[in-house]
Design a protein that fits this description.
Layout lengths: L1 E2 L2 E2 L16 H14 L12 E4 L18 H13 L3 E6 L6 H7 L12 E3 L1
Parallel strand pairs: 3-4, 4-5
Antiparallel strand pairs: 1-2
């Protein structure tokens, strides 16, 4: 479809349910399945490429039941996928309330340390 000279394509979305309060392994399995359902990301993410993951910290602090922020485990699962593909990873945020670092810490994004990627302010 063309609108105003720009090509507009439809987005592909997948949704994968987990049980309530899933652990990291179940979340990682759901993320892998969600990526498979959209055709994977190998054509988008290449080894050595810099990939920014933005966790969407719209209004923290919030627990996962309110679905206001992306849980640290989901962000970690996506980060793990990116790193396993050989890309360079940056996790960054530009929050709506307070400073980015305060928001990242308020929802325990320090749990991402297993992927050894510092969180950055945008």
């Amino acid at each position: 479809m063309v609108e105003g000279g720009a090509v507009i394509s439809k987005s592909v979305v997948s949704i994968v349910r987990t049980k309530r309060n899933p652990g990291y392994d179940e979340i990682r399995t759901a993320v892998d399945k969600a990526l498979d359902l959209i055709g994977g990301v190998r054509d988008v993410i290449k080894p050595g490429q810099l990939v920014l993951v933005k966790p969407n910290l719209a209004a923290p602090p919030a627990d996962r039941e309110h679905a206001v922020v992306t849980s640290p485990e989901v962000c970690r699962a996506v980060a793990d996928v990116v790193k396993e593909m050989g890309a360079r990873l940056v996790i960054a945020e530009s929050s709506a309330i307070g400073t980015d670092t305060e928001q990242i810490n308020s929802v325990h994004y320090q749990r991402l340390t297993p992927v050894q990627t510092p969180a950055k302010n945008l």
